[in-house]
Amino acid sequence: MNDRHVALISAFYDALGQADLAAMERCYHPEVSYGDPIFQEVEGRDRVMRMWRLQLGVRDGFKTSYRDVTADDFAGTAHWTTRYTFASTGREVVNEVDALFRFEDDLIVRHHDEFDFKRWSKMALGRPHGLLLGWTPMWRKTIRDRASRQLEELGPA
C-alpha cells in the first residue's frame, strides 16, 4: 500500500465533490489520459480538465462519495458514486463507477472510469431512448459523438 497515492486519489475525489477544478487539476500529471464509456479517450491535462468542466456544467445537484481506495507504487483503484440531475432531461441519475489509476511522478497519469452504460442511459435519458436503445452500438455512438462535440465547443479554459 502506498499511502501517498491513496491520499492523492482521496484528494481528487474530495475536490470533485466540491467541484474544485483547480484542486482536481493539481492531482493530474501534465500528460494524463482519461477514459470512460462516454468520452472514451481524452489526452492531456488541459483536455481532461475541459471534460470535467463540461461534465460538472451539465449536472445539477452534483454529489459524489467514494470508498475502497487502494494504491501501490504504480496503480490504484476506487469506487465512487455520483448523484445528479441530468440537465438536458431533468432526470435523476445515480451512477456507480469503478476507477483505475496509474501514477507517474506521484501524480495521476492515467484515470479510467468504468460504469454500466445501459443502466446510465436508462436513468439519464429515460424512455424510450435509454430503455430501448441504451444497449445498442448506434445509440452509444450518438451519445459519444455528442459528448465529443460538446468538449470541442467548450474550448480551452
TrEMBL record:
Signal peptide: none annotated. InterPro entries: NTF2-like_dom_sf, SnoaL-like. Residues 10-111 form the SnoaL-like domain. It holds the Pfam family SnoaL_2. This is Nuclear transport factor 2 family protein.
